[in-house]
DNA sequence: GTGCAATTGCACGGTGCTGTGCAAGTTCAT
DNA sequence: ATGAACTTGCACAGCACCGTGCAATTGCAC
């Protein structure tokens, strides 16, 4: 062990990484994908997967952890130093979009029942932020909705999922999807369409 | 057979009905619910369920058929004779809400992969209607969205699901949910919040 | 009560998945 | 080339489920 205890990407680590990546894609396509399907898709034998992850649940759990971490980071970074609620929502959604597009699995799995508890718990902080933000916006009159802030947070989540599906089905161009999703989220919160479009153009254009 | 060939609800029919009802609830809670779980929940033995439905798939298929039929009917009836796109959407969503609330299973199942094809096919006519409606609204300038009509249809579907979840979790009152959902759908399509609220009040209040 | 339909209880065979064990390769650094 | 880590290829036990068969039983109608 001369200099390879950390940052070492032996083929073992490479395999582990590829298994995770492939598992993500495979589980997205079919939340019930078996370990064998995942292994084969990763160009590896089932037994090897068990060499890296002790159980199916452990594999998924790792996936979820990675996804949540990425989402929380993106959200925090996007909103760093922004005070205006509308702009905050816009930046947040745009940033989340980039990550979530890759981790669509999360939403697919969140729809299921058994594992749902763990995921919801782990996503709680993210959702709490969003709710707080929406509440401020509603009180300030920037937003306007018959729905209370927590329900609006649900709406935002599902809305992103809908746009992702639309992208999957080729109804929306990938490079437009993020902005379109953001505008839709803002208008769904009761912001005038013109203001929302303008804000998003400003926020995403000036990058 | 004196007078009971039709409209006869022998305990056989009663059981069949209860099995369907319970299966709906049970599958909503867990899309992977086994035949045994369903049977027990219906106060019946597994073997009996197979007496009514030849396979798990047949049972679910019956459920889906009933749900789709109810949805299509509600939609058609709600929009009968209404020409204005916005009002049409409003009436349609309100009507669909009543039915969909009971058939949340559909959306839960639609999220899954295997059975998805059949369901999507059967829902196609309903979605086609909605898309056409949205397209007209967009062209007329009543709606305004960066998303094309088909993508907006996805958004509407998922949005209803989000509100249903919010209701489930006690974040929104059931008797307000339909109207709130409708307003949110309209604003998400780019309609000003004030117009949407007004329209929904008018359409749903004057019943 | 007699008869018919439906329900029950149990016992199969079949299938597909999970997680484990172990011996035989393979790959890579030293 | 030697050793260590990793991978492979099988084989196995366990489990949960599906769909079916059949004999016994229950409930309802007449």
UniProtKB/TrEMBL annotation, chains A, B:
Residues 34-53 bind DNA. Gene3D superfamilies: Tetracycline Repressor, domain 2. InterPro entries: Homeodomain-like_sf, HTH-type_TetR-like_transc_reg, HTH_TetR. Pfam families: TetR_N (PF00440). Residues 13-71 form the HTH tetR-type domain. Keywords: DNA-binding. One of its GO terms (molecular function) is transcription cis-regulatory region binding. This is HTH tetR-type domain-containing protein. It comes from Streptomyces yokosukanensis.
